[in-house]
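Action item from last week, closing it out:
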Amino acid sequence: MKVLVQRLPRAGGLSLPAYATEGAAGMDLVAAEAVTLPPGGRALVRTGLCIALPDGFEMQVRPRSGLALKHGVTVLNAPGTVDADYRGEVGVILLNTGAEPFAVARGDRIAQAVFAPVTRASWE
């Protein structure tokens, strides 16, 4: 599957999402801005990427287990869904459940993107 991507100026110099290993299900998404999350705080962290998914697919935005285990940082609406017809900037809503402030630096891996087919239903 090919996904069209537009890199916004804020993402200049950052790598596109990529699979870390051959067996990885998700691509790492990186922050295009620095944000500090206070304990219990949440923020939308922008990636600087706009995508165009093929019809019939979604991109799920999922937490990174290392951030959750080590720092108590997770994706608030996990899994978040990017629909095939969405053309705006991809953002990740992070929540700090830890006891200490958590600093996100530009270029930090903040979430994973997993692509999945969508089944549409009708009511009877």
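Closing note: The first helix runs from residue 65 to 71.
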